Amino acid sequence: MSHSAENLVSYLEPYSVQIQGLRSIGYQLWNRGWSLGTSSNYSIVLDRDPMRILITASGKDKGHLGPNDFVIVDANGRITSSDQPKSSAETLLHCTAAAHCGAGAVLHTHSIWSTLLSQHFFALGGIRIEGFEMLKGLEGITTHESSCWLPIFDNTQDIPALQKQVVEYFKEHPEEKCWGYLIRRHGLYTWGKDLAEATRHIEVIEFLLECLGRTIHR
Q: The whole model's pTM is what?
């Protein structure tokens, strides 16, 4: 093991519980076909003052994450130690969810239904899902007579520009509860106060998207 690798192991060791949690959810989401190849990224907030976020490293197979396939970044998405590998290209979107939505964990997937429906509804600016019992799995919803709005942002490799759009959306729609959003022909972002809640939200939203997709395309 190289000196740099040894330093990385030592640096991440205090967060072995959080790392194991993300490795486990990575396998689950990969096994469901929502995080294939090296797509997707996941994170957990370690501290808020100052902000520190544990996030998957770039280019890793999410179904077989190793204990060192993670990076710790600050509120601006910068790695906190030079011994760490490159973080996900979309790190800033995780920082935004943590800062503006109170997220304690963020999950991003590339499922078939989120990819297809993000294109189908793009011209409408988002997807409103209502009337399903499974909506009650989203934090704060207590009846099926509710709705969930998922805004859709256009895909781009300019992540700082996309981050700015997301931040502006949150500021312009403070009255619209948001559990996640879609990126056109890309995938789904969702979050929760902790990893358990974020996991529940991604399962619920993916279920609702598939129900909607099957209804449209039957």
A: 0.92
Angle between helices 16-31 and 195-217 (to 10 degrees): 10
C-alpha to C-alpha distance for 51 and 33, rounded to whole angstroms: 32
Concatenate the DSSP letters of all residues of 57-116 into one string. BTT--GGG--TT-EEEE-TTS-BS-TTS-PBPTTHHHHHHHHHHS--SEEEEE--HHHHH
**CA 195/CA 186 separation, integer angstroms:** 22
Report whether pLDDT(143) > 60: yes
| Domains of the chain: total | 1
Q: What does the pLDDT look like over 131-142, one tens digit per residue? A: 999 999 999 999
Q: What is the CATH number of the domain that holds 51?
A: 3.40.225.10
| Structural domain span for residue 14 | 3-217
